[in-house]
Amino acid sequence: MLCQIPILVQVRPSTIWRQCRLGNDQQTIPVASNDNQNKSVQHMKKIITPIRSTLAPVFGAMAVIAMTQTQSHAGGAAIARWNLGEQDSGAVAGNVGNATSTAAIGSPGNDLTGTGSPTYDANVPAGTGSTLSMAFSGGTYYRSDAVAALTNNFDYNNFGLSFDCYPTSNPGYNAPVSMGLYGGQSSFFYITGGAWHYNMNGGGDVALAAATLNAWSHLDFRRVQGTNYWYINGTQVGPTGNTTAGAGTFAPSVCIGGICARTSGGALFDAGGDWYGNVDNVVITNFNIGTPPILSGYAVSPNIVYTGNSIVFSASVSGDPNGLTFSVLTNGGTWVSGLSSLPYFINNATTNQNGNYSIIARNNFGSATSSIVAVAVQPTLGANVMWFKMGENDPGAVNGGAGDAETLDAILGSVLNWSQTGAPVYTNLVAPGTGSALSLAFDGSSYYQNTDLAAFLGELDQNNYSFSADVYCTAFGAAGFSFPISLGRNGVSPGGIAIVEIDNGVTGEWYAYRQSRGSFADLGPVRSGNSNPCQRRLGICKRPHHYLYSHRPR
Questions:
Q1: CATH number belonging to domain 63-72+292-377
Q2: How many other C-beta atoms lie within 10 A of the C-beta of residue 480?
């Protein structure tokens, strides 16, 4: 058999076939029972392995990009809220507050009990939609030491406390709202000396900003992943990134109108922290309902791609899945947005897809942005990476001479370490028009084999390669089939692919055999015998999602 086999291969990092045999298959296919029967009587010429570097050059290219993370602590879930009037039955401005202030979120577990005579007031913060607030005059407050919001998996390191308040006087240190027990784990704003302060963990005092009497202010404390943030009327105040308090858990106590204190006798009200003025819209927020996305790896594979093939964007993403989407950016603009998952493929790439690419992952709690990687799309030309001329590169090869112990690759030389079995013979029977001077003839029991092509085929992309052969068949295989060439190993994962002749002793057909799929593709008829020789160019080309086959006379 005369055989020329160009293999157009696209390479990217992967593990694939490690074996190749010239002259027969590595093992029998299902129609045979032993390896000695699948040898062909044939001449072989030129195994060519051009890599079609459709996704990468010979050894592939993959860019793994460092991440920059942007996070947000907006969007937490309110787990308790007190509107201080709107939910209280019969509440009217000027009346004494009900014995119980009904929680707008979490009632009855978050309801508070009144002490003294706080009163409903029509003085409300503008723009909030509120119709009533609660006025306190020192010694009056609402409180519970069994607030459900602080007992159901409350996260001390991820919570918020916000409210509106209207201070009318500042006789000492005065707190509108407190959580936990002062002297233990606690959290509260207070005014002293005309300025707002914050107390965390029973003594971690932080000075914030000047307080204004007889005016509404919106105060907001957020502790996110153990770091404290304060806002007054939407402006961040106080030290950035303060972590005064250590980890811990609150006693499930909330007081509106003063401070809950701990003494040796139990939980008592701290009279020194009495509030003078109005309070409205008190909210406790849980910020531990989700985390921003975290990109632990972003890969563009490859970053050199050839036209007609694919650019693949992938990343490992952790964080809360709620609202998770991805965008791919190129050259500063959005290529695609709203993706629900990765990897993302740009298929049939053209030179118009040259550019600098990055991705953004977003969820309900923040975002993460990758660094940028440059992608170059180049015209598809293909590159020969293995080419067996079956004689011309073998030292001392002459017509009629015995085949060398190793037939050399025209590109890689002897590094592939082929071994010989039997006695193949050099011949000047060559394919017309190829410029060839020699081929190798195999007698059905001879072949060349390499059982470890990891250095070469370990980079083979199974979706982008081809191989072909010029063949001259002088006799059918003894068992009804024979192989001029095979790649991979039949019966050993991930299988292999081969060109095979299957016959009934009189007529035969050429097939492309894919062991991984257990399927055959008919390439056309075989003509055998010296009285009726026929030279053929046989080929297989693998592109994404399909195989192409060729069979044409010489």
A1: 2.60.40.10
A2: 16
